[in-house]
Structure formats: structure tokens, C-alpha cells
Protein 1
Amino acid sequence: MSRTRTIKVDYLARVEGEGAMYVRVRGGRVTDVQLRIFEPPRFFEGFLRGRRFSEAPDITARICGICPVAYQMSAVQAMEDVCAVPVDPQVRALRRLLYCGEWIESHALHIYLLHAPDFLGYESAVHLAKDHPAIVERGLRLKKAGNDLMTLLGGRAVHPINVRVGGFYRVPTRRELVPVTEQLKWARDAALETARWTGTLEFPHYEQDYEFVALSHPDEYAITEGRLVSNQGLDIAVREYEEHFVEEHIPYSNALHSSLKDRGAYLVGPLARYNLNFDRLSPLAREAARAAGLGPTCRNPFQSIVVRSVEILYACDEALRLIAQYVPPERPSVEVVPRAGTGYGCTEAPRGILYHRYTVDDAGFITDAKIVPPTAQNQKAIEADLRAFVDPRIDLPEETLTWQCEQAIRNYDPCISCATHFLALRVDRE
Amino acid sequence: MADTAAPAAVKPKVAFYWCASCGGCEEAVVDLAEAILDVVGAVDIAFWPVALDFKRHDVEAMDDGALLASFVNGAIRTTEQAEMALLLRQKSQLLIAFGACAHLGGIPGLANLWDRESIFRQVYAESPSTVNPEGTLPQTRSEEDGRRLTLPGFYDTVRSLDQVVPVDYYLPGCPPTPKIIVQAVQTLLSGALPPQGMVLAPDRALCDECPRKDTRPEKLTTSEFKRPHQVLIDETTCLLAQGLLCMGPATRAGCEALCVRGNMPCSGCFGPTSRVRDHGGKALSAIASIVASNDTGEIERILAQVPDPIGTLYRYSLPSSLLRRRRREAA
Ligand code: SF4
Ligand code: SF4
């Protein structure tokens, strides 16, 4: 076979967005790997300027319909930081509860509808459903449990309403949370089963020495707040983010690539959280991880499907705990007086840390915005992975290799729609 | 699964495609959960990049009109998206704009404000005096501003789907609610097609189906608009009556007042009813008409308190508004 091959995939199916992958092989070696994102900038950071500070949560939610809560949460956190608003502990708990719903639904979507078909040799979940309806139905029902929790707190699962700077528009009574409790108990069992089942899948032997980056919190598996830490010594407050991370524009992609200053690629998301915060998972989740064959560290990105299952389990467990302890706050929200300043927010979206920074003027209008979504942060790591992954496999038949590469990309659950990033330089590209 | 009823060959073929979209509309389809498995049984999904491994050439190989319906979400901002819109139009008997972005331009359409911010500011915030009942303020002003509203580059603009190809039906919402999606699919599969160009949601104002409608005042007695972050919002009284800017009077019904039920003012994602050309303009005039004053100065004073009028009144509809159209004509 020819020693010069070019593998091109023009549409990456089953990733949430538009992207293409390009791998160049010369003389039997991989010489170039490019993940192209051609969904162009959608100017969110640009048009956030001039909007009210209070609108950032609802507007930025539309960057990603798969993880809108993450956008709302990072945005409210940043705005509450600007305005120095104290958050009621029960409001904080409710936000965490809402976020658990998003983790459950987003992970279930990825595991069952996007990722599992790869391992079981099916083209898609629709094909998988023909042979294994029970599996797909469990996935959909699990997703629905997450959706229903979000709907209960936010009116709907896609772009929930209700989150506002200072609190919520409306908070539920204890009674209102009862029906979802039963469903979450079912979901917890289903998540246990999911972890068991994904643990039996066959994984290619493939480990990488990543720098993992995630939020970390002393008392809980970090979702809504924490310090930014890594397994290579990073330990900073969220507001120091831009002193340590840089973003560069890569000519072949419309998304910006993030890297750690002086160190380069890093990985965010379930694998990073798991490795950095394993001991803060609930006992049940830790046990399920062990039973599925995972130790406290996991460096095989293909096993991220197991880690996601463990995180669903954790989210169900945590949601049940939060509901049991819930006492409605005295008021759904506190008054917020806008003031000039800069605020920072960072939370754990299902795919990894999502950073927001806003500058607001004294009348409450946004004058500057910066948003760094998880997929942009993982892009460099995905490319490095592909390079390492393809090298020993270049003699595989074209179709097999292409398919395996697509699969390798899907390990990251890349939400390409949110990797897209405004960049002024790109404006007259077309 | 329920695909024993009819041989695969006679199942109608449908496609889903996304353009400049957040993925929420796709998610809304997936979230029909059990219902979606039935739909999957009743139709043959011929193209759906987010979920299925079909590629563009599979669509290109189809006969014209081979697809019964294509559901396209997201706005149009790239050549690629425009090409796909054209291709799907050619291959489909029915093209459906799915969700606020395809319908009206949506939130990504606010990008059309980029670097013309000051002009819009001037148009809206600083000249409330040109408000009139038909809501033609943006039109007038942009005519006056003529050249300055000219766009620097075609693809620098976000367009709604029907600004690129003819659209048969629209499904409103950001995202459309399960109820209206299911109703629309049933309608389309039934073969009893509604008049072309219809928005597949009730053609009346949201206030009509709002649980608080009985508390809506004839006249707005408040002399100022409050901002949601300043007040504790009562959970049963009309939001306008509380001095909060709710888009209900100018917005199409169909969501069953989802936001208001969550104690949040409507931001207008279903777009206007069929009698209204310009959603934001209609909202302004609707509000002006219930302000408890006949004194234009007073009306202006109250309306001038609407912060960020474009982001508020045209949150989802800027590309398809008169503002946008005027600008294109001027270009
Ligand atoms: S209409 Fe709303 S949910 Fe649908 S793609 Fe646009 S932003 Fe997302
Ligand atoms: S209340 Fe308004 S913004 Fe909310 S879903 Fe309905 S139409 Fe959309």
C-alpha cells in the first residue's frame, strides 16, 4: 500500500457540532493531525457587549443547547462576583441540583446515543435500538430523569428558565421535589447498571500522560465552584485563570486552542475530574468505579464512557442528598445592584471547565466578555491523542482507520458547537 | 419496534439538519424520548448528522423531492449552511424552519449588531420619540441612517432560513416545546397540510393562554419599568402590572406561558403572530398603548427606561426584523 496517505473525514457524525478531521501520513508516519472546526464564530462575546449584566445567563445558554446550565452557572457566578452578591446556601444547593440534572442528561446522551454504538459495532443509536431496544430505552429513560429534574427546577430541559443573577425567579417547595425523588432512585440503579455494563466493553490499550485540569473543592466533588487544580501542580483561584492559560488561533480551525503557559496541552472533563477528585465521589460511586475495573486513576480516554457512568451515578446520589436536605430559601433571590467591575466564573460543564469573565460598567452594561468552553480547551489534547493513536495503526484499511479515529474523537464528547469562539481576526474570512 | 406496520419502502423520508445552532433544537427532538422511537418507526430518517453516519453525498444522490420533509434548525451564516439549505430544499417536498434561529434568526442573530451598536443605541435608546403604534421606528430610523447601516460583508450577517430559501412551515420557540413538535409532525404526516408559510402554533398572543391574564390591567399604572433583579416578583400577578417588561402581548402563544409559569417575564422566543411584521416594534407599541398616560412625553420617559432595547425586544428576531431588512435593502 502507498506510504503516503491522507485521511479526511468531512463530517464527523455523532459529535455535537460541525467539525472535520485531517490526518496526514508521510513515509509511514503521521506528520500532521488537524481537527478542523468550521462552524464559524458566532460572535457571542462580541454581541454580549452592550447587553445587560442580568441577560448573560440566558444569552450565553444559547451557545450550547446540550449544556445550557453550565453557561448559566458560569455566567451567574461571574456576575455575582462583579456585584459582590452573597449567595444563599439553599440557592447554591438548588443550583447544584439543577446542574446534577444536566450532568445526568448530558452524560446519558453521550454514553447511550453517541458513544456506545462505537463499542458495540453499530453505526448509530437508531441501529443499536433495532437489536438492543432495552439498552437504548434505558439510556433514554436515564436521560429523561435528568431532563425531568431540570424541567422541575427550570421549566424545560433545553435552555431552562428560572436562573437569575442573585438566585432564582422561583424556588420549588419541598413537596414539589417529591415526584422526582422516585425517578432519581430508579436512575441511580440504572446508573449502577450502566457503570457495570460499560465496564464490560472492550477498550483498546491506549494510555496517555495527560495534564488533567479540573475544579477541586475540599468538601464535595466539584461542580459549581472550587479552585483550579491539575496533577502537575496547578492550584489557582478562578480569577487567576488568564495568568496561566492562553488561547491561540490556529489557521485551519475556527475554534481557538487553549494551552497551559509553558506546558501546552491539557485535558478537562470527566477523566480529569475523576483523577483529581476521586476521593470526593460518594462511596457508592467509588465502589461502582472499582467494580467496573477502574482504579483511582484512569488514563485511557476510551474508558471515559465508564467514568461518565460513574459520574451519572454520583449525580443521582448527590441530587437525592440535596433534595433530602432542601429547605426553601427565605427569598428566591436577593436584590442585585450592578456596579462597575470585572467578575470571574468557572464551573464544571459535563465536558469540563467552562470559564467566563465579564467586565460591566456602573450602569450594568457588559463592556467586555470572554468565554472559554471545554472543547476549546481539549482540542490540543485531542490532536495529540490522534497522533499517538494513529501512528501504530496506519496500516489498517482506510475505512477501519477512519472509523477508529472518529471513535477516538468521540471519547471527548466534543461539543463542537460550543468550542466555537469569537475572534475578531476571522470576521472577513469568508 | 413498531416498524412492522409498513414496508420500509413506503415510509416517508425525513431529514434533520443544523446550521448556526446551539444543538438545543436537536436535543429537543431527542427529548421526545419514547415518542421519538415511534416517530423513528413511522418515518425513515434519511439524514441526521448529529446522530447518524450519513454524509452529504448521500443527500446529493437523492432524487429531487425524495424527502417528504426536512427540518432545519439554526440560522444561516456560512456558505456551507446556505448550500445545505439549498440542497435540502431541492430534495424535500417540505422545508420546515425548526426553532427560533431558523424561524427568525434567533439569539445568534444578535451578532448582526456587531459594530453597529452605537447606531442602534441611537435609534432605540436615545430617540424613543419616534415610537408609533405600528412600531415602524426601526424602519424610519434605518432609512435615515441609510448607508451607515450597510453591512460590511454578506456572510458577516446572520440570516433566518427563509432569507436563503423558501420555507413551507415554521416551528417557533427556543427551542420548540414537545407539544408543538409532536403536533407539527402529526399534521405533516396526516397529509392534511395547512396553508403554506404558516407558523405551526396558535395565532394569538401569549397573554391569551397566560394563567395570570385576569390580573392584566387595562392600563399600566406603573410609571416606570422595573428590572427583574431589583424586585421580588409576585408569583400570581401579571408581570406587566408589576412593572416588568414581559413580551407576552406581542408574542405568539403555544408555549403555554412557560416562562411566566416560572415567574420570569416572557422574552419572546415564539416570535410574533401573523399580523405583526416586526416583533420588537409590536412589543414597543403594545406597551406604549397600555401605559397610563396620553402624554407622549410621559410615554417616552417610561419607554426610555427600557435598558438595552434591542437585546430585550429583538432578542430572537433581529435578522428577520424590519431593521435587518432595511439594512439589506440599503446594502
Ligand atoms: S432556536 Fe434556540 S434551541 Fe434552537 S438552535 Fe437556536 S438557540 Fe438553540
Ligand atoms: S414565555 Fe415567551 S420566552 Fe418563554 S417560552 Fe413562551 S414565548 Fe418563549
Protein 2
Amino acid sequence: MEAMLEVRDLDKNYGATEILKDVNVSAEPGGFLVLVGPSGCGKSTLLNCIAGLESISSGSIHIDGRDMTHVSPKDRNIAMVFQSYALYPTMSVAGNITFGMKVRGVDAATRASKLQDVARQLQIEQLLDRRPSQLSGGQRQRVAMGRALVRDPQLFLFDEPLSNLDAKLRVEMRLEIKKLHHDLGATMVYVTHDQIEAMTLATKIVVLKDGVVQQTGSPAEIYRRPANLFVADFMGSPAMNLIPARASREGSGTRIQIERADGAPVELIDTGNGDLPEDVILGLRPEDIAEAGFRSGHHVHEVKCLIDMVEPAGADTFVVSRLGGKQVTARLHSDTMARPGSTLDLVFDLDRVSYFAPDTGERLN
Amino acid sequence: MAEPTSISFLPSRAGDVALRWLLFAVLALFALFYLMPLFVMITTSLKSLDEIRTGSLIALPERVTFEAWSTAWSSACSGIQCEGLRPYFWNSVALTVPAVALSTLLGAVNGYVIAQWRFRGANLIFSLMLFGCFIPFQVVLLPMARTLGFMGVAGTIPGLVLVHVIYGIGFTTLFFRNYYVTIPVELVKAAKVDGAGFFRIFWSIFMPLSLPILMVTVIWQFTQIWNDFLFGVSFSQAGTQPVTVALNNIVNSTTGVKEYNVNMAAAIIAAFPTLFVYAVAGKYFIRGLTAGSVKG
Ligand SMILES: Nc1ncnc2c1ncn2[C@@H]1O[C@H](COP(=O)(O)OP(=O)(O)OP(=O)(O)O)[C@@H](O)[C@H]1O
Ligand SMILES: [Mg+2]
């Protein structure tokens, strides 16, 4: 299947500063590609390059098989929703949505009928005569979406469209965008720094840091098998536990030793992963550490841990212990008997373990 | 738009009340002091010459007469001609209106380009334009005279319009640029994706946003150009002089007695348009000076 969007070897410099370095990204038709990364990593810049709003220093951009590298934004068959919505302040909602069609010389009857369609779809029919300043944040967001939808483009570009909304509305709109994507079957590129948004919406995630792609993959891949320490730490909440450990060979597997301040080192036997270097960082998601008795499997290891903190969070309770000089968080049932200061038997599920090299941060298994 | 916050006094004690009245009294005194010359001008212009000679400067006119006004308007003498301010007043109108319109429009486009289409060297150009605001006019008189001569518009009203447009652009660009930098660049980006080009974005999106700063610029330019004397006296000839130059000639004409009432009336007539513009658009002026970012 030919990619709808293909960014090849893209570099972007502002003067001497390199903002994007050798970025390769592609999105399949109907796919939902999420660009995620910390603030300032170049997400908006990349999106602007795809839209043609920023020139690129080298590389190429193809949309639907056509080389769009030097094509102006209006001819790229894209629509974009901006972080600040960028609604035209002096135009009514209807004016905002139809401005693009007016510029393109679409006749009034078509404009009106398309406007009605989009307004119905987004449930903003009663707002059409208002100015942007008379709308709430959520309503502005919808209008910005409407302006994009009405173009019926091949490719939608979203730049953190939900970041200005409150938490509840954000969850609602997230669902709505997901539904919209499903209904339209269009290809979408979506920028966010919220990893939960990334996980819930994406069919494919690209993790960026300092203008360099760290990993590309499905949400499950990114979550289960992060390519390096940065991705491991960035994706997931609470973050993956990253515990310094020593590995030594044990048959065809590995013996893992984790220091702890208040007792003998923890020893785990991993029956796989035979060729690890001596120093590793062991990564385990909080949900891969459970209370003894709640998890079975031949890769499960029981460890007695001193509990420092207990944080009930509704459905789950997080308990924090200390291993290898790091805080280690486990996600337990809400009815756990764990109490701060007491010890608890926790089990580590090494089926889900990740190993990273401490110096390069790269994944080892 | 935020209303200016008012200082509220809580008259909880008699001392506070007294203090407040004292403050008002002082303010009123200053206002009176400031308005005194205007008062004298208006009353004097309504008196006859006899009354001026015999009466007190600050006395109200015993018999109100508009004779001085009609003289000033249509028959006061400057040098050899005795046709009043009227032709020169219309010269000023014919010169100020296009000069204000052109310099404002150019400033708007310049400001829009510099603030929103950041091209290489935009800041340098902006700095140079700012520099242009602070060049003393005397410095450019001779080169400008030569230029107007080359262009064949020396001594004409179009020539004066050109001069004022050129020297207005620095300020008008500054005004618009500072207004437009507060508008998020994403607005232009959105319009570009919508397919709009440079001028379409300017007319459809930026111009409708610009009313406050447009008012500021128009008032500023109107005041500058209408009140200008130096360029008017340097680059005009008999028949194309603006009202400020004519006023000067009337007041300084040495023949006969000094007609103070006519002089006062002429001065008020010459100043009237700027007062009028400020009265009509002044509220936008104040708003425009404080308005900045566009919310929503
Ligand atoms: N016009 C510019 N000139 C120079 N540097 C710029 C310019 N625009 C952006 N940058 C830099 O490029 C980097 C990436 O910016 P970008 O806006 O793409 O970040 P982002 O990932 O979208 O961040 P955020 O999540 O905060 O929106 C930043 O370090 C920024 O300072
Ligand atoms: Mg951004």
C-alpha cells in the first residue's frame, strides 16, 4: 500500500541551529499518525514543514505519491488545526468556516450547504453567527475543526488541538476526534506532548526528541518495547521503572542483581536474554510488578520490599518502594493491604522486562 | 478591552474628603490655566477692533460680532493678496487627505510585511525606518528640493504630498508593525492553508482587525501634516501654500493696524480640523494606544 504521507531524510535548520535532523516519517492511507515528544523538540516545526508553511533545508515530502516538497500549502490538499485555533477574529463562525471556499471561488450555494453539513456534524449550528471571541474554548476548538473538515482534504494536520482545553473536555474531544477519524477514513497527522492522547488515538506513533526520531511504531510496540531510555521514560504514566542492575550469565539466561540500601541485593533469574553486558538498566512498567499471588507464570519472581509510600488512585493503588537507588512504583489493586513502612511481597514479571545500556540508553533485548 | 482602572477614594474620614476637594481644586486650576489661551482667542475673535483696543484682554465681548471670522476666512490680506484663508485651507485639505491616506496605507502594508512575513533582513529594514523617524527635517530640505525639481513636482501639491508620505512612512510603519506583532503568526498560516495570498490575507483578515491602530495613525498623520509649516513653506509657491503658511503670512503682514480679532479667528480656523478629527476619533486614539493583542 502506497503511503499517503512520506517524509524522507528531512532536515530543517534555522540559520545555524538544526531543528530537525534526518527525519523519516510515513503515514498509511486512513492511518492516524501521532508525533509526540517534549516541548521544543520540533513537533510543530515538522508539521509546518509537512503543511508547506516552513521551507525545509533538505529532504523531500510526498503526499499521496506526489512530490510536494516545493508546492505551496494551498495546493497540498491538506487542512490544519492549529494549537491556538487561529480563528479569524473579525469573522463569524460561518465566515471562518467558509473563508477557504470563498478564496477558492466556490459558489455561494455550495458554500452554504457544506457549511450546514459540517455544522451539523460538529453540532455548532447554533453558533454560526457568533464571533470567535464569543465562544468558549471547546466551541472554538470545534470551529477550528470545522474549518479543516469543510475542506475535505486528503491529509489532516493537527497541532496539539486539545492542549488548551480542561481535562474533562480534553477526554471528550479526544473520543470525538477518534470517532471522526473512523467516520471519515481520512489520514491524520496529530501532534501532542500528551502521551495518553498519543496512545489512545494513534495507529502509529513517532517519538521525537531534539529533532531526532527516537522510535516509530504502533502504540503497543512503543509501550512494550521502547527503543531507548528516553522513550521508556517518556511514554506511560506513571513512567516505567528504570532500575540500575548488574547482569551475569546463568546458563543460557541471566542472573540480575539489584542493590538495595536496607538489605541483601535482590536476585532475579531471567531465563532468556543471555548476552547482556555487566551493567544494565532494567525497565519494568508499574503494572508488571504485582502483589504476590495476583500474577502467575514461570517468569514471575517474588521479592520482599519495604513500602515507602502508598498512593490510592481510584481503580488502582500505586505503592512506591526503593530498589537500586531508585524509586520503584508498582500498580496494585485498590484493596491492597500495603501500608507505608511495612514490607510486602511483590512479584516482578520478567516476561515484560526491558534492558537498556546505561551509557548509550539503547535497548538491549 | 480593559477599562482604565479608576482610583477610588473612600471618604471614611473628614480629612479624606478635604483632600479630595483639594485635589479637584488643583486639577480645575490647571485645566483653567491650560484653557486660558483658547478662551482669550475665542473671545478676542468675537470682539470688534475698537473693543479690543479699549477693553481688557480677558473680558467677555460686549457685542458679539462674527466679522473677524468672515474676514479671516475670505478677505484677510497676506502680502498683496486679500482672499483670506479659504484657498489655502482647501490647499491643505487637498494635500492632507491624500498624504494621510497614502502614508497610512503604506505603513499598514509595511507593518504587515515586517511583523507577519518575517523575511531575511526584516529587522534591519525596520530599524532603518525607525531611524528615519528621528532625522531632523531641516537636514533633508535641500536634497528634497532637488529631488522634487528632478521629478518636476516642485512647488505643487502632489510634490508636497510626496514629501509628507515619505516622511510619514517611518511612523506609520512603526505603529502598524507594533500592532501586528501582537497577532499570532498562526493566523497567517491558517489563511495560507485556506488558500489566501498576501493581499487577500491583508484585506480580509488584518485590515478588519486594525481599526484602533488605523485611528491612531490617521490622527497622528493628520495632525502632523495639517500642522506642518516647514515643508509647507519650503516646497510650495504662491497659490499652493498650505493654511499654516497662509496663517503666518496674514499674521505677519505689516500693512495697516494689527487686526488681533482676525488673527485669532484665522488661527482657530487653521487649528479647527485637527481638533475636529480628535473629537470624532479621539476615543479610538486612546483605545488604540492601549490595545494590543487580539484575544480569541
Ligand atoms: N523561527 C524560528 N527561529 C529559530 N528557532 C525556532 C524558530 N521556530 C522554532 N524554533 C525552535 O525550534 C525548536 C522546535 O520548535 P517547535 O515549535 O517545533 O517545538 P514543539 O515540539 O512544537 O514544542 P511545543 O510542544 O512547545 O509546541 C524550538 O527549540 C524552537 O526554539
Ligand atoms: Mg508546538
Protein 3
Amino acid sequence: MSGVHVTTTINGDAVEFVCQPGEVLLDVLRDRVGLTGAKEGCGTGDCGACSVTVDDRLVCACLVLGAEVEGRTVTTVEGMASGGKLHALQSKFIEHAALQCGICTPGFLVSAKALLDRNPDPSETQIRYALAGNLCRCTGYDKIVRAVQAAAKELAVDATKAAKKSAKKAVKKSA
Amino acid sequence: MTTDPSFTNQTFKIIGTRVPRPDGLDKVTGRARYGADASAAGQLVGLILRSPHAHAQIKKIDISKAEKLPGVKAIITSDDLPDLVKGKRDMLDILENCMARGRALYDGHAVAAVAAIDAETARQALKLIKVEYKVLPHVTDVDEAMQDNAPVVQSWVRTTGNPESNKPTNVCQVSQFGHGDIEAGFAEADVIIERSYKTEQTHQGYIEPHACLASVGPDGQGELWVTTQGHYTFRTQCAQLLGMDIAKLKVTSSEIGGGFGGKTHVWMEPIALALSRKANRPVKLVLTREEVFRGTGPTCSTSIDVKIGAKRDGRITGALAVLRYQDGAFPGIWGMLGGMTAWACYDLPNVKAIAYDVLVNRPKVAAYRAPSAPMAAFAVESTMDLVAHQIGMDPVDFRLLNAAKEGTRASYGPTYGPIGIRATLEAVKNHPQMKAKLGPNQGRGMACGFWFNFGGQTCATINIGVDGTVNVSVGTVDVGGSRASLSLIAAEELGVSYESVKCTIADTASLGHNDTTEGSRGTFSSGMAIIFAARNAVNELRARAAKTWDIPVEEVEWKDGQACAIGMQHNNLEPLSLAKIAAKSPRTGGPIAGHNETVADGAGVSFASHICDVEVDPETGATKVLRYTVIQDAGKAIHPDYVEGQFQGAAAQGIGWALNEEYVYGKDGRLQNPGFLDYRIPVCSDLPFIDTKILEIPNPGHPYGIRGVGETSIVPPLAAIGNAVSNAVGVRMNHVPMSPPRILKAIKAQRAAG
């Protein structure tokens, strides 16, 4: 069986790989690209431990073929922090003890980011339903939901600050 | 979320603070390496062929075609795993569970394994292995397995305990616990309630499947990277099963993606090592979720009868439980543990538990968080509610009246020291949830739970760097934040900052034997070893200060992280900090370290009481948990966040067990739901916030008063929810899980009965 050559963008970097036609994105990421942050908990799309985004759409990497990401943009947990600065979700997960064993954490972070990107101010119920595709066996979800709430709050403060700053700049410019 | 420290008389500087965990950054960035995240140059992919039959004789395994497939490097069957542990039946059981020896004993039992250059080749090779089976009669239900005409799972098994038996049977052990005169107790009672209960089999459900990377060379040396709760135990078991020298097998525990008891003994690790040895290449073996369900874990299904007799004033006069636990296809002690824990919450004059361990054609049962206690608690605590109702007493008052206390002779033998059961019940009584109003179709329940705490063999090493930072090496694995707790303990004891301590889980070559991280022992026992190791390091630090000052060591004391000279003649000497002494260490005698190797005695028992409010939809039978509170005695909460996390996680597992989770076997003895879609564990939208209250009743057996906290809170939920659902629907629920069909059936039966 001959491989498929794929050109794609992963966490902002141009990446090329060759994979088998039947090989799932999760195996490509883990075994060919060397990004082991996404985990296989089930291989059937039930646990969400392999959550990544493809062109900003949240997917289970175990249900997407590697060949399908040709020309697309893939983001994994490894792409969440910018340089030395953690994403608010990452720092709130640590601060709120939202992980115990941590195997589900990458999936939760990617899913929670996808939620906050489209709904910056979710209710508790919206958070719980948005994360219902991610299984955690350690925490009972309590501290995870609290961490997402805290991150949403922090991101809202950051957004307000940024808006004020740019408004100030605009005022200065117009003056 | 509250902590009541009023029972504690110790004061701490940093113990009890909510510091960030040291492995947090790695775990939120995807950098942390779990079982399946390691690779080696030239590694092969290992896969396992499993029996599709519940019980079958393996007449022939033909590997000739598979062997010829290009890319296949090794195939093994039980022929490659000879019995090297002659006479040690428990070890042979583990080996036979890893790979069937002549007979497949359950659906999913491994029969052969292959190592190939890639997954696709390995999959093809599995298809080319031809196994000839002769299907045998099977039994999967615990009550059926105890009948005289039941198929016998293991022909060598005889009943031990009382009564002993010399004929082949599925009852491998009968255990009895208790004291007093049970018949006299029942004769004295004004009210007697007798009920039967069933609980179904559940899996630990850790999100990380079993995974390992094995490498063995022809020189007999090997390495194993593995997700495990006990890498030292894995080393011993693998070495003994494969005829290797223990010292020549180095086992490194990866980050562990959950275990809950399911990663306490070997499953496929000896297979990976045997494949590697045969192929002379590293082999990576990762189980699929289906394999995890069919071939690992789970806990027992049970059938339990409970009889309680009480006076009108609420005093229990007699208590009897008959417990039948299935251990899967190999003998275990799970029924025995159920018998020991059943009545442990109460102070009873006449009490008895008779427990049966029974074999069936299901996977070998493994520990699952407070193993065996939740089922016994379901039966006992449900009956407790019925008795309270019958005599018209509040269920909490009824339990308080009969609760065990310091000096109570436990039903399983020992006499209790200071314990927390009454304190948890008082806290339940005073909790606002108990007074909150309930709506239509809603019900409230509460229940108590007990679990032991294990100590065991433990080592710790503390190495102090020349910059005054501290390395702590331990041999218990970090399942839920223990590196943070253990760093806090080292920092507290040495008087240094939390940030200056780095805690590492040592591999088997770097530290002496440590027992498996089970029985809620991680923080308890490694914490104890660290305290003693730190005290040894402090003695050395004092000696170095004495040497620097040229005074006798007896005149140096350790205070707040520094050496202070005592006595009038030394009062002009500036105290020497740990960092200052460490900086001078190359010239005062070399590296400064402290070690401790111990059997951590003094484990204390732990109790929890839970409150649960539910709403049951009478049309669908679906139950929603509206509010849930966990109250548990922690001894001393080293890191309250992770203590709360244990309470909440245990409660959530219990909720899943109570309402949904269940192994479903077909008539053919095959597991019908080996995946997370059909075996549904609680998801985020199923649960409310889980409130917690930490009580701190110090364990006198530990220098800091620590009790294990990890397991106890999975014990009450089955019963707490059972009581809540029963109160909501007006029918006593006696079968777990209380899934919608079971609840509907119970409601309909009640209606039909009028």
C-alpha cells in the first residue's frame, strides 16, 4: 500500500508527512509528527482525550483521517500556549487543581478553548454540555468546570483591557 | 467546600496550603509522558489475540501462516511462558490471566500475541493465527455459579475456610467475621428487616488504557516503561514469571492516566517482555479500550442478604450479612473484604458477616477503589434506612445512636482508636442540604462508608543540592497530585520553601522496593518515609553546622530551616540556614542526604458520610443528581485541593456505578458493551458541583496525623443514591445500577401490587 503525501499546518508550523490512507490523524500526530499531547482513550470518539481543532472545528483526532488535513490548519494542546505564556485555561486548570491524573487534560483544554472562542461567557450548564464529550474519571468535573469559569472571567478582563488600550490608541491617533 | 480543623492540635507552616502542583505545567501543555507516549529506536508493535468464547478448551493454535507474514518478528503463546513459579498458585494465576494455558476462561482472555514492524502487519498476523476451540459450558452469574450443577470454572479449586470442601467447586473461599450471639440478638429485637440485594460488575474506567514499552536483550537485562500503580511490584512479578533476575529488570513508571486499583498487577507486561526477548527488539504494547473492558479490571458483581434487628428505641441488637462476590475466573479475596467492611461503621453487640468468594467466567477481578466495600455498604445502608423508617426514627439519628466510636470492637476484629464516623454524621445532621426543600419526584438519601488504610514497604531519599534546593525521591506513583503533597511534607519538615523542593518518582534501579500505590497509602506512607528521611538529613545538617562551628552536635538544634547553636556560650553564633550549610557541604564531608526505608505501620481507618438529592422522571425512570455532599475524615489534609478532588472523584465514580455502569453479558457469556458508548461513565452534564467537607481527626499512627483519603468516598454513593431514589419513587431499590429500565420496572411492579 502506498502512502499519501500531506502538506498541512500544525500549531502554526508548516508540516509535511506521508501516511497510510486508512491512518487516523491521532496516529499521525502521535507517531509521525511526534506530538503526543492528544491521547487515545477509546479510539471510537467517545472520550474526547484526542480532541484537536481542524480549521477551528473541534474534532476527535481518532475519527479523522490523516489524509483529510491536507491544506488545513490543525491545532493541538501543544499549540495553546504562546511562547512562555500559558493560555488562561491552562493556568486556571493548574490553579484550580482541575486535573488529577491529567490524561484527559489536553482534550479538556482544547474543547474548553473551542467553547470560549465561540461563547466567551458560557453559563455553568453550557460549560457542562460543551464538555460532555470529554470523559474524566478522576475529578467528578467539579474543579474542571470552576477552572473554565475562572478562565472565561480572566479572558473577559483581558479583552476589556485590550479594548480600552486600542480605544486609547485610536483617541491618540485621532487627536 | 470547607475544612473543619477543630479536631487537630498540631500547627503547620505550609501543610494545608493550596500550592500549584509541580507536574501541572507538563500536564497542561501535553508534555507529560504517559504509558503510550514513549518510543524506542527499532521498536515493534505488539498486539494480543483474545478468546471470543466465555469458556473453551484450546485444542490447537496454528501460528505457521502468521509467522511467514513479512514483518512479523515474534509470536508467542503459553508455550513461550513456561511455569517458572512452581507451587506459587497466585503467581501462576497472574501468568495464566496474562495468557490462557490450555483453556480460555472468559471472553477476552489472551491466547496468543504477536510483534511486528507496524500495527497493520501485526493486525494481519493476528488474523492468520488459527485457534481451534472446543466450547465448554460457562457461568457468569454469581448465584448460578454457586449451584451444585454449575459449570466448574477451575477444576483445581476447593473451598477454603469454613466449611472446607474437597470437591471441585466455584466457591473458593468462605470467610466469617463478627462477635456476640446473633440469634440471641434477633430474639431480643422489636423489629427485624431482612432484604436481598444485587450489584452489577463495573470497571475502574481509567481513561488511559494499559500501555508499556518493553526491551529485553539476550544478556538477560531488560527495561520496562509502563503505566502502573506499582513499578516495583511489576518488576518482581515480571522477573519471576519470565525467569529474570529482579535487579536486571529496570522498571520506570510513566505518568499514570488513572488506575483506581486496576493497575496494581501485571496484565500484558510479561507478554510485551516475552515478545521483546523473542524478537530481540523493543516492543510497544498498548491495549485498545475494548481490550481494557474485556481483559482487565473489573470489580465484582455481588448478591447480598442483610438482616438487621433493633429495639424500638433504635438500638441494633443483631446484624447479619451473607455476601456472595464473584472474583472472575481466578480466586481472590474480594468477598472477604466485603465481609470485613460490611458492619465496620457500627458498634454492634451481636454481628456476623459470612462472605463467599466465587469463580465465574468473567475477567479476573482487580481492586477497584475501596474494593468490595461499596456493594456491602449498599446492602447494609439500604437496610439501615428501612429499619429507621420502620421504628419511626430519623435515619441520621438512628446511625448516630449505633455508630462506632473509639474503643468499639470492630465487626472484623480490632478495637478502634480515635475515628471519625460520628463526626461525619454530626456534620451531616448540621448540613444545610438536610434542611433544603424537595420538589415533586425528588428524594434525599444519606449513607455512611468505611475503608481501611494500608501502609506497607516504603522508601524515600532526600538529597540536598549545593544551592539549598532539595530533591525528594519516592517509590509510590503520583495518581492524583501526590508530588505536591509530598513536596509540602518535605518542605515543612526541613523548614524550607515549597518551591525549593522537587519530588520525583524514582525508577526501580534508584530506590529500594516500594509496595504498590494502593490502599490509600501514597501520601500516608511516602509522607511518613519522607518525614523520617528529612529528620535523618536534619541530623546530618546539624552535624555539619557543629563541624563548622567546632562545637558538639548536641549543642545544635534545627529550627525553622536553620541550625542554631544552643546554650549561653554560643549565643553570638549566627544561625546557619540549610542553604548555607549545603553550600559548604563539599568541604564539610560531601553531599548531604537523608534516607528512610520502612514498613509504614500505624495506618488509620477512614469514614465518610454522603448526602444526595435526586429527581427521578417517573415517565422514563431516569435519575438526575441535583445536589451531592461528601463529608469525610482526612486525618490531616496535606493539600486540601487534592483531598477534595479525591472526595469528588470517588463520589462521581459511585454515582456512575449507582445509576448507569454495568457489564452486560449475553447468554453466550460474551461482554456486550466493551466501549465508552455503551458502558456509560458519568459525563460533565450528568453531575452537579460536588460539595465537600474535610474533617481532620488525626491518625495517632502518623507523625502528621494523616489518614488515606483516596478510597473511602466511593463507598457511600451506591447506598446514598439508593436511599434517595427509593425516597423519590416510593419503592425500595435493591439492584445496582438503578438504570432507567430497572427503576421503571420497580415503579410498575409497585403499581401492579397496588
